[in-house]
Amino acid sequence: MLIKNLCEGQKSNILILGGTGFIGTWLAEHFCDAGHKVYSLARNPPKTSYENRFYFYVEGNINNGRLLEPLVEECPVIIHAAADSVPGDTIKAPLFEAYNNLLPTVALIETLQNFENRHIFFISSGGAIYGNPETNPVSETSPCNPISYHGACKLSLENFLFPFAYQTNNKVTIIRPSNVYGPGQRNKNGFGLIQTILSAILIDSEFYIWGDGSIVKDYLHIRDFVIACEKILLSANQEKYVRYNVGYGKGYSINAICQIAEEITGKKIRKVHKEARIIDPAEIILNTDKIRTETGWCPDIDLKEGISQVWKSLKTVMPKS
Asked: I need a labelling partner for 30 at 20 to 30 A (CA). Which of 81, 128, 133, 271 fits?
């Protein structure tokens, strides 16, 4: 009934977990602008002051059942975009991954078991869970052999959500994004290759490359990702548990991205090569036939245009050296 109502144009209350992070912020703004009432649960307040009457910030953790229950009561749609690590953060640190990402979501699932007719969207990973695939591009049915604890955690949570959907009258949609980038991404070492490269250029600092720069990944602009999420939300797919790859469908090496960044900025990157990391797959490109066929979605912003947007955004918010 939920999907039917949304398809007919009715608005829904949406709870976004991790709603003040990079992806969560874009999702919250988009769904508010579309007229949905959005509750944004996060540990940190939004960076900008919202005057949107459809937006409500709630401070807290996703494992706080008492806090969650009244929010879930109000919201038939829950988007889980909360994450406390990237693959490089938890090298040789499986306990960090378990305590900060796995266990909080398992606690969330326990709370959600008390409700019915909820649609849970889990933002997984379109790169970390596949490991080093034998062939590219990878589809939703390709083997998942994560080589990082971050990827192992994402896959574990996908697997936890399957029996949750099976045992309850709730629907689960797994979204496996490629490397999402765009304006507003936080400046943190190891968080977002494109943001890191352009930030280094802007302040004239060194940019560290793990390995020789030949690693190939699939990069998707955040705007295209948000539209994909909306298309999935509005789709007619009635499966109780479904997975979607969401990516551009084309791979670029680190070296290629550096070249594009230098062309756009007119500046040279101060590259420093470091020893390759064992957690980095050599190549990951996503097959997105499923979402394209079922929803009609396709990415609109190519890599060069997207990098240009990030560069313009950075120059307005970051001080130069």
From this structure: 128
Encoded tokens for 49: 């002051």
2-178+221-247+287-300 CATH pick, 3.40.50.720, 3.30.450.40, 1.10.1740.110, 2.40.50.90: 3.40.50.720
DSSP 8-state secondary structure symbol assigned to residue 87 = G
Q: List per-block mean pLDDT (blocks of 10 residues) for the chain, which spans 321 residues.
A: 43 93 94 93 82 86 96 97 78 90 96 96 95 96 95 96 97 97 79 91 92 96 98 90 97 97 96 91 97 97 97 79 47
CB < 8 Å & 24+ apart, contacts of 127-135: 127/151, 127/178, 127/179, 127/217, 127/218, 127/281, 127/284, 128/87, 128/154, 129/154, 129/155, 129/158, 129/176, 130/281, 130/284, 131/281, 132/281, 132/282, 133/281, 133/283, 133/284
The residue extents of the domains of the chain are 2-178+221-247+287-300
Task: Report the 10 Å Cβ neighbour count for 289.
Answer: 13
Using CA atoms, how far apart are residues 71 and 78, in angstroms rounded to an integer?
10
Closest CA to 295 of 219, 234, 239, 224: 234
Helix, coil or strand: residue 78:
strand
